[in-house]
């Protein structure tokens, strides 16, 4: 089957004053429609670069990035993005901020309809009543909620989240995980989540990809079967502990702080074939 | 609220005038050394129509020079903010141009366009005041965080759309900050020309005639009138800023 997002053999280098800086080298990633993939890896390994490739903001030097089996050659309106910095426009109200993408990709939609759509999303994330506030009047978590609404308002097929909760405190972050899952059940999208938080990755995603240090390749892929509703308690099961252990070890390998050998067969030599830890049910 | 916004500045001004009066009186300075506020009242009474006429001359030429500075300065700032190459190329030129004391440019301009008094004055006001505007607009544009661009670029928005929806509004607070500086600079430019150029008009010329006639209170009266015009224009800019960039003001405790 073709995946919604298919990244194969991607290599990319930035041109810098000191010469080319290879960032990605042999990146593989497949996300099925409706899937939710988390990407973890050492700092500076090229995770944001990966999001820019998927969003069509850049093209890779080598390899292909495909959406729907179609090569990505430039930005497309079917992608939504949110970052660690909520980048809300200070001169707009929250409602107008959320409506921004619609002004660009759905300019034919009536203003009233745009407004309804934005209000609907704001209500979903619990920001009802804050529509007419300015971003500076909201807390960090609320701003990030508004930013999520903006990234989804034009019903993108693909949602790219680059450490969206990285700057939030632990409690707010856990609240927002739930918000994101609620959003996903109401507004189906295919997600790519960049994160530094392993608990976040296994709580939210159905696939976790570990990238190696720069120049990054796909070092490890973990599939997490999903069924039924999730609660934070799921993070405190032996199964979750096992997954976290594996991922933590993989990160250490990526950082060069641990030899690759003890993780035995779970390291995937052929990244297209997943190594699912057999200790798990 | 009203008291703090209007009452406090007025009280400060009156205190300043009283202190000035007391200083002159206590030192027993004659008015050719330092006129006191009470000396100025007769000067205003005597030359009231002249003050209105000359004040208007100065004001409109300053405003026109300032408008030119806004248009040209924004244009240069735009070009420098968008293209790195042009920024690198234009910066030394601009800095060099700005470093030339405008007092030396005044006679050159006066000779270049002999008799075109209004034009010369506007030109100097413009030349002295466009620099901060150009710099602030270019800095505002070039320091725009890439994420701001990316949220629109990822949707396929054109450069023009990104500029109108994000870059321009985001630059407005810096722009108004620079405009406040430009206002006072433009006044300096206008007056330089008015004082230096013969058969001048405007408050600068009135100052000059006070000098030639040794009418010291008149000279001080002109300075005060200039300050008043400067304050007036400054607050016009503040009002514009409130309207167009009021969002940048953080609610303070
Ligand atoms: N536009 C650019 N030009 C040159 N080098 C860049 C550019 N963008 C990123 N880099 C470099 O490429 C490398 C990967 O950057 P990237 O932002 O993709 O990493 P990251 O994994 O997202 O890092 P972090 O975890 O800190 O967010 C870094 O070393 C960075 O300095
Ligand atoms: Mg990053």
| Count of distinct structural domains of chain A | 2
Instruction: Give the low-confidence spans of chain A.
Output: 263-273, 275-281
Number of continuous helical runs of chain B: 9
Q: What is the terminal-to-terminal distance of chain A?
A: 26 Å
Biased composition (Basic and acidic residues) (chain A): 263-281
Organism (chain A): Palleronia abyssalis
Family (chain A): Belongs to the ABC transporter superfamily.
GO molecular function, one term (chain A): ATP binding
Describe what this molecule looks like in 3D:
- The complex is a heterodimer of chains A (281) and B (253).
- Chain A is an alpha/beta fold and 281 residues long.
- Chain A has two domains: 1-75 and 162-168 and 192-240 and 251-266, Rossmann fold; 79-155, no CATH class.
- Chain A has helices at residues 47-54, 94-105, 111-124, 140-152, 170-186, 198-204, 238-255; strands at residues 5-16, 19-31, 36-40, 62-67, 70-71, 79-83, 158-162, 190-194, 207-211, 218-223.
- In chain A, helix 5 (170-186) links the parallel strand 7 and strand 8 (190-194).
- The longest helix of chain A is centred in the last third of the chain and has 18 residues, at 238-255.
- The radius of gyration of chain A is 19 Å and the shape is globular.
- Residues 263-273 and 275-281 of chain A have low confidence and may be disordered.
- Chain B has nine helices and no strands.
- Chain B has helices at residues 2-27, 37-82, 84-99, 102-112, 117-142, 146-153, 159-196, 202-212, 216-245.
- Classes of the chains: A alpha/beta (281), B mainly alpha (253).
- Chains A and B meet through strand 6 and helix 2 of A and helix 6 and helix 7 of B.
- The structure holds adenosine-5'-triphosphate and magnesium ion.
Summarize the structure.
Chain A contains seven helices and ten strands.
What are the defining features of this structure?
heterodimer; A: 281 residues; Rossmann fold; 2 domains; 7 helices; 10 strands; 23% strand; disordered C terminus; B: 253 residues; mainly alpha; MetI-like fold; 9 helices; 84% helix; binds magnesium ion
């Amino acid at each position: 089957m073709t995946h919604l997002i298919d990244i194969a053999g991607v290599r990319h280098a930035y041109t810098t004053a000191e010469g080319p800086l290879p960032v990605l080298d042999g990146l593989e990633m497949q996300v099925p429609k409706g899937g939710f993939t988390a990407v973890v890896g050492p700092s500076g390994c090229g995770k944001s670069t990966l999001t820019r490739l998927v969003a069509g903001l850049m093209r890779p030097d080598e390899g292909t990035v495909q959406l729907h089996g179609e090569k990505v050659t430039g930005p497309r309106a079917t992608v939504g993005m949110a970052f660690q910095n909520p980048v809300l426009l200070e001169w707009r109200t929250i409602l107008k901020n959320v409506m921004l993408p619609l002004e660009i990709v759905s300019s034919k939609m009536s203003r009233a309809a745009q407004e309804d759509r934005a209000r609907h999303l704001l209500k979903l994330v619990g920001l009802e009543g804050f529509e007419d506030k300015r971003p500076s009047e909201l807390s960090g978590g609320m701003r990030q909620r508004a930013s999520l609404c903006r990234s989804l308002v034009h019903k993108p097929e693909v949602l790219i989240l680059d450490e969206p909760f990285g700057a939030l405190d632990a409690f707010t972050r856990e609240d927002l995980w739930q918000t994101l899952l609620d959003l996903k059940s109401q507004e189906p999208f295919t997600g790519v989540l960049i994160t530094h938080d392993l608990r976040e990755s296994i709580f939210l995603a159905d696939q976790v990809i570990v990238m190696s240090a720069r120049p990054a390749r796909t070092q490890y892929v973990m599939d997490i079967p999903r069924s039924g509703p999730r609660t934070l308690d799921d993070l405190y099961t032996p199964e979750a502990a096992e997954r976290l252990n594996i991922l933590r070890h993989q990160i250490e390998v990526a950082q060069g702080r641990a030899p690759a050998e003890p993780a035995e067969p779970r390291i995937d030599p052929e990244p297209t074939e997943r190594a699912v830890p057999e200790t798990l049910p | 609220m009203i008291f703090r916004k209007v009452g406090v500045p007025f009280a400060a001004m009156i205190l300043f005038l009283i202190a000035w009066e007391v200083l002159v009186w206590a030192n027993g300075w004659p008015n050719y050394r330092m006129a006191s506020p009470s000396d100025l009242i007769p000067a205003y009474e005597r030359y009231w129509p002249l003050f209105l006429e000359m004040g208007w001359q100065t004001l409109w030429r300053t405003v026109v020079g300032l408008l030119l500075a806004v248009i040209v300065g924004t244009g240069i700032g735009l070009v420098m903010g968008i293209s790195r190459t042009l920024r690198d190329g234009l910066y030394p030129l601009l800095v060099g141009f700005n470093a030339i004391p405008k007092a030396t440019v005044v006679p050159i301009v006066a000779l270049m366009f002999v008799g075109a008094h209004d034009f010369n004055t506007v030109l100097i006001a413009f030349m002295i005041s466009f620099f901060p505007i150009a710099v602030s607009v270019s800095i505002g544009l070039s320091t725009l965080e890439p994420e701001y661009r990316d949220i629109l670029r990822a949707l396929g928005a054109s450069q023009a759309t990104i500029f109108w929806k994000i870059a321009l509004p985001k630059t407005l607070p810096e722009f108004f900050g620079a405009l406040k500086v430009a206002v006072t600079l433009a006044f300096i430019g206008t007056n330089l020309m008015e004082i230096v150029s013969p058969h001048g008009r405007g408050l600068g010329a009135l100052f000059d005639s006070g000098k030639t006639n040794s009418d010291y209170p008149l000279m001080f009266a002109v300075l005060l009138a200039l300050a008043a015009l400067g304050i007036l224009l400054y607050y016009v800019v503040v009002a514009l800023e409130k309207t167009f960039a009021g969002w940048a003001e953080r609610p303070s405790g």
